[in-house]
């Protein structure tokens, strides 16, 4: 007998005959009476909440119009002294138009050690969650593979507001595709393992900068109310 | 079968190494004294107690704040309980669904009935890659089965990458808290460990390392980075597995999880079968309740989800090892099975007056605190001294129930397990029904009660316990199962919550036939 059969057999004996078809029973088994979002905020307030919660978890938050984005990104990279910046394959070409740093593409053959030489990475995101101050990456072309936002010590993430902002975790999950590898990021990497003192930055990027850019999301305008 | 020594109570061959304390696969730490004795030692260690007090109180207060932010907390908690209960009730169905989804997404699913089998599977998978080292992200399941020791026996080095796990591994020590495994170490001790041990495992600690947390974290970053960047095999657990999509979820803070899940070519995840949830949507409950209960954050810094393998992003091979190792035995117990709802947030540890005083090591298991007191004896049986005494490692104050984000009635399960120890009876072990003999002369009970006396001799502590208990009673109309009621009627142990622990203790302490002090070693032996 295979271990699969053994385990499934033990489960069947442990439970006895199960009542009804699980899926039919499922909807009735769980009371979803919890909130879909917390508080009754306007679109603007929701974006402000995102900014506040991001900052509360020590992400550096910047806000700009779409036209000011290239200058802002150039400034952030320069201030950091970034000479080499990792670039996902589908980053809108204009974003880094004003930046001096050398663009480093993430090639299939690049080793993690090679990526480690880049100072910064600039990406878009799939969405951002206001209530928790979270940005979510789903590996779309403007975000690239997971490793490029992990190895460099400085991550600049651009969020189009209000289109990419959702109020809550339930709304975020509805908009995400579980078949894509997802990374939820809430502030820079941190540990409280030493006497519970929070220390920023262990293995992930130690500096997370989030740029909230307005006017760049005509295509998905209005999603905040649906999302 | 009755009275058969538990596998966990015997010494396993070849697993006692100098690197980490020996542990039988899936069992107690080798030579672990029963809870009373271990607690006795811990209570007398002032450093340990100061660390624990500071730590548990800090997390406890922060958690209360984070929870208060959500006005629908009670409904989220109830939904979490219902989701888990439903899943457990149909566990076979959801596991098969999960297996199909993971396979369809390019992963390979393995089933392990016990710790030995899981270790064999993982060792074989690592050997097949030709690699001799692996990076690991903190996983209670792999600690439970003693995977590091099994890999070491096969000549494979497993590097723990969670900062606290690194401290524990370098210090040749045992974890003492679910979330903060090195909670018993203060900064000076950590610096000393880094200075003296890092070189043996790889990059040495920087010259002149001080004991500031930032410098210690930097030392860990540098030490581990070279391992991440060259690692070919990663090993993880998971917080959740979604049956409908085949998605696994890892919730973490430091980024070592992302490193282990993303950079290696092969990823092996060892996950207890009870971590299954039916749908993607179910995560909306747990991704709200887990971070707030655990680290008291709105959201933890990093959460990774992945489904099988992804083209060109992350590991090319993904193996999921589904672990039973006593979980189906626990499932067979209608009262005890609720312990399988646990999402390992550790909130119950931080509110527990016994844990605060005794520390995690006294529980002799990777699962310390109140949840360990109900989970370990069920996963391993109550035949060993430590497991027989664990159900007594509680004042039944109920604070653990109150904070539990999936509403596990830990006191109810404790009383149920005490009954099993004292009265004996039928339960399931390795999938078969066995009958346990009552502990001779109630030895276990006596020994454990002496332990309780030791831990609770402190009046301030008891008052704290009583305050929590009073709050719980209001919120919590609890009924004991029938036999429990009968049992409590014939013994000086109260049906919960009829009598405050302190009153009961005073009464039994002063009553006739009070057992003499011994070291409690005879418990359940
Ligand atoms: S028993 Fe409840 S409170 Fe304790 S760790 Fe598990 S989920 Fe958290």
From TrEMBL, chain A:
Transmembrane segments: none
Coiled coil segments of this chain: none
Residue stretches making up the LUD domain: 113-213
InterPro entries per UniProt: FTHF_cligase-like_sf (IPR024185), LUD_dom (IPR003741), NagB/RpiA_transferase-like (IPR037171)
One Pfam match: LUD_dom
Name of the protein this chain belongs to: Lactate utilization protein C
């Amino acid at each position: 007998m295979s271990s699969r059969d053994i385990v499934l057999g033990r489960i069947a004996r442990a439970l006895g005959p199960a009542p009804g078809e699980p899926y039919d029973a499922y909807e009735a088994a769980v009371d979803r009476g919890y909130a879909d979002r917390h508080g009754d905020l306007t679109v603007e307030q929701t974006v402000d909440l995102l900014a506040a919660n991001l900052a509360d978890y020590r992400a550096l938050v910047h806000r700009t119009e779409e036209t000011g984005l290239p200058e802002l990104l150039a400034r952030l990279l320069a201030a950091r002294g970034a000479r080499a910046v990792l670039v996902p394959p589908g980053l809108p070409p204009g974003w880094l138009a004003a930046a001096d740093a050398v663009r480093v593409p993430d090639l299939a053959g690049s080793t993690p050690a090679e990526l480690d030489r880049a100072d910064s990475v600039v990406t878009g995101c799939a969405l951002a969650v206001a209530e928790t101050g979270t940005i979510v990456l789903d590996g779309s072309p403007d975000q690239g593979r997971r490793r490029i936002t992990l190895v460099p010590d400085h991550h600049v993430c651009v969020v189009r507001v209000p289109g990419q902002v959702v109020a809550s975790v339930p709304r975020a999950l509805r908009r995400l595709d579980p078949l894509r590898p997802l990374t939820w990021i809430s502030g820079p990497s941190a540990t409280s393992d030493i006497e519970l003192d929070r220390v920023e930055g262990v293995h992930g990027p130690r500096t997370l900068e989030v740029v909230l850019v307005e006017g760049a999301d005509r295509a998905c305008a209005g999603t905040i109310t649906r999302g | 079968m009755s009275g058969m020594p538990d596998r966990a109570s015997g010494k396993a061959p070849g697993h006692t190494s100098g690197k980490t304390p020996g542990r039988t696969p899936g069992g107690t730490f080798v030579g672990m004294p029963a809870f009373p004795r271990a607690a006795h030692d811990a209570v007398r260690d002032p450093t340990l107690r100061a660390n624990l007090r500071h730590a548990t109180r800090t997390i406890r207060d922060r958690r209360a704040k984070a929870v208060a932010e959500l006005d629908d907390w009670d409904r989220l908690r109830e939904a979490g309980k219902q989701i888990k209960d439903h899943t457990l009730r149909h566990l076979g169905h959801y596991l098969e669904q999960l297996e199909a989804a993971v396979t369809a997404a390019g992963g390979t699913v393995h089933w392990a009935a016990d710790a030995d089998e899981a270790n064999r599977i993982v060792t074989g998978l690592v050997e097949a890659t030709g690699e001799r080292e692996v990076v690991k992200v903190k996983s209670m399941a792999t600690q439970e089965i003693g995977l590091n020791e099994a890999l070491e026996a096969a000549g494979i080095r497993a590097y723990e990458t969670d900062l606290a796990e690194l401290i524990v591994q370098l210090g040749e020590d045992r974890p003492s808290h679910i979330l903060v495994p090195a909670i018993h170490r203060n900064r000076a001790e950590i610096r000393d460990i880094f200075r003296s041990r890092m070189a043996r495992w790889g990059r040495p600690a920087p010259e002149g390392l001080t004991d500031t947390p930032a410098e210690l974290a930097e030392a860990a970053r540098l030490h581990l980075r070279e391992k991440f960047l060259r690692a070919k095999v990663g090993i993880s657990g998971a917080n959740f597995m979604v049956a409908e999509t085949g998605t696994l979820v890892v919730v973490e803070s430091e980024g070592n999880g992302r490193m282990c899940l993303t950079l290696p070519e092969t990823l092996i995840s060892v996950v207890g079968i009870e971590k299954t949830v039916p749908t993607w949507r179910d995560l909306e409950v747990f991704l709200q309740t887990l971070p707030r209960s655990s680290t008291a954050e709105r959201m933890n810094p990093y959460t990774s989800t992945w489904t099988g393998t992804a083209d060109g992003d992350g590991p090319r091979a993904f193996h999921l090892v589904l672990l039973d190792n006593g979980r189906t035995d626990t499932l067979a117990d209608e009262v005890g099975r609720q312990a399988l709802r646990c999402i390992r947030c550790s909130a119950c540890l931080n509110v527990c007056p016994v844990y605060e005083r005794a520390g995690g090591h006294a529980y002799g298991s990777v699962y310390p605190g109140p949840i360990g007191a109900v989970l370990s004896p069920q996963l391993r049986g109550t035949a060993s001294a430590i497991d027989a005494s664990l159900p007594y490692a509680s004042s039944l104050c109920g604070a653990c129930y109150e904070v539990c984000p999936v509403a596990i009635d830990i006191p109810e399960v404790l009383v149920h397990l005490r009954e099993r120890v004292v009265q004996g009876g039928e339960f399931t072990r390795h999938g078969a029904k066995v009958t346990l003999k009552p502990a001779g002369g109630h030895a276990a009970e006596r020994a454990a009660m002496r332990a309780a006396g030791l831990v609770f001799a402190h009046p301030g502590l008891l008052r704290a316990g009583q305050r929590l208990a009073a709050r719980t009673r209001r919120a919590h109309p609890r009924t004991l199962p029938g036999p429990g009621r009968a049992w409590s009627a014939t013994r000086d142990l109260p049906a919960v919550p009829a009598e405050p622990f302190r009153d009961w203790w005073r009464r039994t302490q002063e009553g006739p036939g009070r057992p003499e002090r011994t070291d409690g070693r005879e418990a359940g032996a």
